Structure formats: structure tokens, C-alpha cells
UniProtKB/TrEMBL annotation:
Species per Swiss-Prot/TrEMBL record: Tetragenococcus muriaticus 3MR10-3
Encoding gene, per UniProt annotation: citG
Record keyword Methyltransferase present: no
EC annotation from Swiss-Prot or TrEMBL: 2.4.2.52
HAMAP family the record matches: CitG (MF_00397)
Domain of life: Bacteria
Keyword Endoplasmic reticulum: no
InterPro entries membership: CitG, TriPribosyl-deP-CoA_syn_CitG
Protein name stated in the entry: Probable 2-(5''-triphosphoribosyl)-3'-dephosphocoenzyme-A synthase
Lineage: Bacteria, Bacillati, Bacillota, Bacilli, Lactobacillales
């Protein structure tokens, strides 16, 4: 793989985050129109955050492509780089957590992609994507036990760690260790089926609502508890199943957004997964 391919992977990951924040209207989330349920971040802060992460995206891919040891040691390298990336992100956003979950996921996905491209080439097929997600599952299989085994001894807990203690929710770690089933079994099959039928924005907005209607979203659980999450999920089911045209769909999203702003709820987990789905859509040339 040439340096140009590493640059291409970096562009795909960076563009995925740009596409996600630019999608509008989104329920409870930062977009071009408003800040959703977020009082401490806006569209321009997301741009600053993405720019701070882009050099690290290149490094994740390079670490994978140049790796010649086992997957556990690759994960250690990626996590070390990920800590640097998170530091740069927080510096760019004045300590606001804009992309912590997405940064983790792109670290393991870009690392796995780089490793895979030692013996394969772009564009990807469905099978190539499946193989990448399998690599990620193998690379992170130890993660939940490693990160949560001594959690009660920690003085300061992240939102994800608090949710694990309270409800056993595994969050992004759980997705990674299972090879991102929300992508492989839900979002990507939807994109592959619908990509030629919709504009890019409508395809991605419908994909977001599909995720909201199905996944366990740790951001919603953190902000609204199980009841808040279930309410948002059921609202998503209704919008997804109603077969709305573009105008009706966007009108529903606008109303949904106002409801979530009033309740201070944000489906940030779904937004992160959407950006990962966009990344694979670039790799597979779906969009």
C-alpha cells in the first residue's frame, strides 16, 4: 500500500465525520441548523475537533499497515496514539468531549484497515468490510475485561464506566468486541440496499433514524436513563416505519429535534455509528 492509500483512508475517516455533522436536521444533535440538546458545542467546534483528529487518523492507518506482530500489540499502539488524539481534541474544543467515542472507533477501524491492506486493495467488497470488522473483534476481545475488571477501585469514572456499573452497558467497547454488529447487521445492509435510491443526505438521515430505532445508545442512557432511551427509540421506530417522503421525513425530524432539545436528550451513540457506516460506504463506493 502506498502513502497515497494511507492519505485516502485518512480522508475517508475525516470526511465521514464532516458528513455526519453536516447532516440536517438531526434530532438532538449538533448540525448546520442548531446545536440540538448540546449547550457546550456547535457546528464550528465540531470542525475544529475533526481537524485536530485528522493527523491521528493517518497515524492509526499507518500503524496498522506497518504492523508485523500480533493483534494485541497493535491495539496497544493504537490506544497509545488514541490518547494523544484525545488530548489534541480536548485542546481544540476547550475540554468539550465532541468525538471521544468516534476517536476510539476510528483508531481500531483504521488500524484494522491498514493491517488488512497489507494484502488487499481498495475499493472494498461486502466481504472485505466483514473481514475488517472481524479483525476489530479479535483485536479488542480482551477490552471489556481489561477496562472494567478494576473499575470500582478508580477515583474518577467516565460516563461509560458509570453506565457499566449502573446497568451493565458496554457502550462503544461492547460494539468493538462484537465487531460492530450495528454496522454489519443493521446500517451497512440498509445502505447497500438503498444507496442508489436516495440522495446522500436522505440516505444518511434515514440510516441515522434506523440506528436510533434499534441500538442501545449510551448517550441517551446517560442523559435520560432507560425510560428516556426507550422513548427516543420508539419515536425512531415510528418515523422509520412510516415510509415518509423527503419533505414529511424532514418535517418529522425537525419536530423530533425540538422534543429532544426540551428533554435534553441526544442520540450521540447513533451519530458515532453513523459516521463509521459512512466510512465503510466510502470504502465500498456506496456513496
Amino acid at each position: 500500500m502506498s502513502n497515497s492509500t494511507l492519505i485516502q483512508l485518512t480522508k475517508f475517516a475525516t470526511k465521514s465525520l464532516y458528513y455526519e455533522v453536516a447532516l440536517s436536521p438531526k434530532p438532538g444533535l449538533v448540525d448546520r441548523f442548531d446545536n440540538g440538546a448540546h449547550k457546550d458545542m456547535d457546528f464550528f467546534m465540531f470542525i475544529d475537533s475533526i481537524e485536530s483528529l485528522a493527523p491521528h487518523f493517518y497515524e492509526y492507518a499507518r500503524l496498522g499497515f506497518t504492523h508485523n506482530d500480533d493483534l494485541a500489540s497493535l491495539f496497544s499502539k493504537l490506544r497509545e496514539e488514541g490518547i494523544k488524539a484525545e488530548h489534541d481534541m480536548l485542546e481544540a474544543t476547550y475540554q468539550v468531549n465532541t468525538h471521544k467515542g468516534a476517536n476510539f472507533s476510528f483508531a481500531v477501524l483504521l488500524g484494522a484497515t491498514g493491517l488488512y491492506l497489507q494484502n488487499h486493495s481498495l475499493p472494498f467488497s461486502f466481504q472485505d468490510t466483514t473481514n475488517i470488522l472481524s479483525l476489530v473483534a479479535q483485536m479488542t476481545h480482551h477490552l471489556v475485561e481489561q477496562d472494567f475488571s478494576h473499575i470500582t477501585e478508580k477515583n474518577k469514572l467516565s460516563h461509560g464506566e458509570k453506565l457499566y456499573i449502573k446497568a451493565g452497558t458496554l457502550g462503544v467497547r461492547g460494539e468493538a468486541t462484537q465487531g460492530y454488529p450495528a454496522l454489519s447487521s443493521l446500517l451497512l445492509p440498509f445502505f447497500r440496499k438503498r444507496a442508489e435510491q436516495e440522495s446522500t443526505e436522505m440516505l444518511l438521515l434515514r440510516g441515522l433514524i434506523l440506528l436510533i430505532s434499534q441500538i442501545e445508545d449510551s448517550n441517551l442512557l446517560h442523559r435520560g436513563g432507560a425510560n428516556g432511551w426507550q422513548q427516543v427509540k420508539q419515536r425512531g421506530v415510528g418515523i422509520h416505519q412510516n415510509k415518509l417522503n423527503e419533505l414529511e421525513f424532514k418535517q418529522n425530524l425537525t419536530t423530533f429535534n425540538q422534543e429532544l432539545i426540551e428533554k435534553n436528550l441526544s442520540p450521540g451513540g447513533a451519530a458515532d455509528l453513523l459516521s463509521l457506516g459512512i466510512y465503510f460506504s466510502f470504502l465500498e463506493k456506496l456513496i
